[in-house]
Design brief:
The protein has 445 residues and is of the alpha+beta class. Helix content is 28%, strand content 33%. It has ten helices and 24 strands. Strands 2, 3, 4, 6, 9, 10, 11, 12, 13, 14, 20, 23 and 24 form a 13-stranded mixed β-sheet that branches. Strands 1, 5, 7, 8, 15, 16, 17, 18, 19, 21 and 22 form an eleven-stranded antiparallel β-sheet that branches. It starts with a strand and ends in a 5-residue tail after the last helix. The chain binds ligand ISC. The site of ligand ISC has 18 residues, from strand 12, strand 16 and strand 24. It comes from Arthrobacter silviterrae. Its EC number is 5.4.4.2. This is isochorismate synthase.
Length: 445
């Protein structure tokens, strides 16, 4: 575990932002406040933006969640928090992204920003955070926001490729060619038929290269505009818009949105939700994929819950690119030894679900390492935020990319494989799941 600088002596001040104060920043939506390196967690015009970095945790391996939790606990133990607003997301806050695998060399991080702007249920707020001994004030917070909004400089420059610059980008295979990936799917189906496991989620990567520097802000803004129903995330180089929530903790209530089972909308441009319900709901293969994912989440969540519920039949989630079978799970959290679990403790208990790994989990994890021939990095790992009260929202980092350099993005997508899977159809499904990022990068019309 590394933490810099040591365990910071955090001071935070949250102030309510009224409509007039927001107007001063000439923004009509939170997405307009995005700047080059901003942390982003936005959905339907609400969420959190973070500016600057004042302290961070970075770790790898099987203890990455527990180490991050311990670091955050130490930060909070010394923190001086002034928070008259007191709703989830106010006060002390960190954004985070965790590697999918305990074997990944990709760092899992929690990052404390210098400034947070939050929007929730019609309330807006500004939190300034310091670790250098200075006491934040309302005036210094507003000055910091003005400075953050006035600057657009960063490693990923503010000028350069627009999403419309489709011709400037090219796409190449990552670890596996399409043919090789289909062979991996065939091997996955074989392993399932042989009885070693019931489901495995196999993913692949593609690399997008651009002559002009990428514009992180326009990528995120485009995702919020096109995929408003999804949670648009940005944590350092990781960007995307996920439709799946691993866990959201709001006081004593926890919620998850479990997805598995997919139909490409491009194949059925005239199709309706009813059509998707008939096709997805009527498919044993899709229902089986979905049931594994719901069961894996509810089994892991049950020890922390007094009251856990989800509908008997999944609903159809309609996104611009695909329809999914979806189940919203809710639970009332139970205290263990008198303590409610934090959102991060639940992330550790729940990750990875069968929506991104498989059933049984250990066998699927081993097969993923063997067949994908890549390090998933943060793809399919938890991404989101947590606050000092244990609240937080953690999505599964799907439909995203890692901006690896100013000119290169690596995109990831996967598909749930069961015994009835057809490699060609699963390959097509990955293209449907790449589409949000391809659109955001200007590589798809
Ligand atoms: C693994 C991915 O999607 C998961 C989430 C929803 C539906 C899925 C499916 O139908 O296979 C996957 O389980 C991905 O987007 O890369």
């Amino acid at each position: 575990m590394t933490a810099s600088p040591g365990t910071p002596a955090l001071r935070t001040l949250t102030t309510a932002l009224d409509a007039a104060a927001l107007g001063e920043y000439s923004a009509t939506s939170p997405a307009e406040l995005l700047r080059t390196d901003a942390f982003c967690w936005l959905r339907r015009g609400e969420g959190l933006l973070g500016f600057g970095e004042i302290a961070s945790f970075s770790g790898t391996g099987p203890e990455r969640f527990a180490d991050a939790e311990e670091w955050w606990k130490q930060v909070l133990a010394q923190a001086q928090v002034q928070d008259p607003v007191r709703i989830p997301g106010t006060g002390a806050l960190a954004f985070g992204s965790f590697a999918f695998s305990k074997t990944s060399s990709h760092p899992s991080v929690l990052v404390i920003p210098a400034l947070v702007v939050g929007f929730r249920d019609g309330t807006a707020w500004l939190t300034q955070l310091t670790v250098d001994g200075t006491a934040p004030t309302s005036a210094s917070a507003h000055a910091l926001l003005c400075a953050a909004l006035a600057s657009g400089e960063s490693a990923f420059q503010a000028t350069g490729t627009t999403p419309e610059g489709a011709s400037a980008g090219s796409l190449t295979s990552g670890a596996l060619s399409e043919e090789e990936w289909k062979e991996s799917v065939t091997a996955g189906v074989r392993a399932i038929a042989e009885g070693g496991l019931d489901k495995v989620v196999l993913a692949r990567d593609v690399v997008a290269t651009f002559a002009e520097p990428l514009r992180r802000v326009s990528i995120l803004q485009r995702l919020t505009a096109l995929y408003g129903e999804c949670w648009t995330y940005g944590v350092r180089g990781l960007v995307g818009a996920t439709p799946e929530i691993l866990i959201k903790v709001d006081g004593t209530t926890a919620q998850a949105r479990v997805l598995a089972g997919t139909l490409d909308r491009e194949d059925e441009p005239a199709g309706s939700v009813d059509f998707a319900a008939t096709v997805l709901g009527g498919s044993d293969k899709q229902r089986q994929e979905h049931d594994f994912a719901v069961r894996s989440l509810t089994r892991q969540l049950a020890p922390f819950a007094t009251d856990l519920s989800f509908p008997a039949v999944p609903f159809i989630l309609e996104l611009p690119n695909v329809w999914h079978l979806a189940s919203d799970v809710t639970a009332e959290l139970a205290g263990i030894d008198g303590h409610l679990p934090t959102s991060l403790a639940l992330v550790e208990a729940l990750h990875p679900t069968a929506a991104v790994c498989g059933t049984p989990r250990d066998n699927a994890g081993k097969l993923i390492l063997e067949l994908e021939k890549m390090d998933r990095g943060p793809y399919a790992g938890p991404v989101g935020w947590l606050d000092g009260a244990g609240n937080g929202e953690w999505g599964i980092a799907l439909r995203g990319a890692v901006l690896e350099s100013p000119h290169q993005a690596r995109l990831y997508a996967g598909a749930g494989i069961v015994e009835a899977s057809d490699p060609e159809a699963e390959l097509a499904e990955t293209w449907a799941k790449f589409r949000p990022m391809l659109q955001a990068l200007g590589l798809h019309g």
